[in-house]
Amino acid sequence: PTNPGRTGPSHNGECLDGRWECARSFTGVACNITCPKACFSHGSCYHGVCQCSKGWTGEDCTMEDTCANDCNGRGTCVEGICQCFVGWSGEDCSFPYDASD
User: Fold this and answer.
1) Rounded to an integer, what distance in angstroms lies between the CA atom of residue 27 and that of residue 19?
2) How far is CA 91 from the centre of its chain?
3) Buried b (16+ CB within 10 A) or exposed e, 5-44
4) Would you give the DSSP letter of residue 83?
5) Maximum Cα–Cα distance for the chain, whole Å?
6) H helices then E strands: how many in the chain?
7) C or N terminus of the chain, fewer CB within 10 Å?
8) d(CA 53, CA 64)
9) Residue 3: Cβ within 10 Å count
10) Using CA atoms, how far apart are residues 64 and 34, in angstroms rounded to an integer?
11) Digit-coded pLDDT (tens) for 6-51
12) Cβ neighbours of residue 42 under 8 Å, at least 6 residues apart?
């Protein structure tokens, strides 16, 4: 890449300051690698894999990463399901239990 502003070989980016800057949802040396469904504008494409923005998950960032009551601060939200910390259970980690039982 030597011509600033020149369109990339795949027409999905342009040359800026001596390197290719790919258009959104394209990546790779020649800006010719895409991500599934362009990450539905809920993330960025990096080497053909969606890096989802906060609040989104899934291969193409289409699944909301929200959980009931945000797991009440007693668990971690993973693809919309609370993974409760030890000592807590329930859909939203609101029920205490004795982990020694």
Assistant:
1) 12
2) 24
3) eeebebebbbbeeeebebeebbbbeebebbbbebbbebbb
4) E
5) 69
6) 0, 12
7) C
8) 10
9) 9
10) 21
11) 454 557 788 888 777 887 667 777 788 788 788 888 988 887 888 9
12) 52, 53, 55, 56, 61, 62
Q: What is the mean pLDDT of residues 64-75?
A: 90
**Spatial distance between the Cα atoms of 47 and 53, rounded to a whole number of angstroms:** 16
3-state secondary structure of 73: helix
The residue type at 75: G
Contact of 56 with 80, CB cutoff 8 Å = no
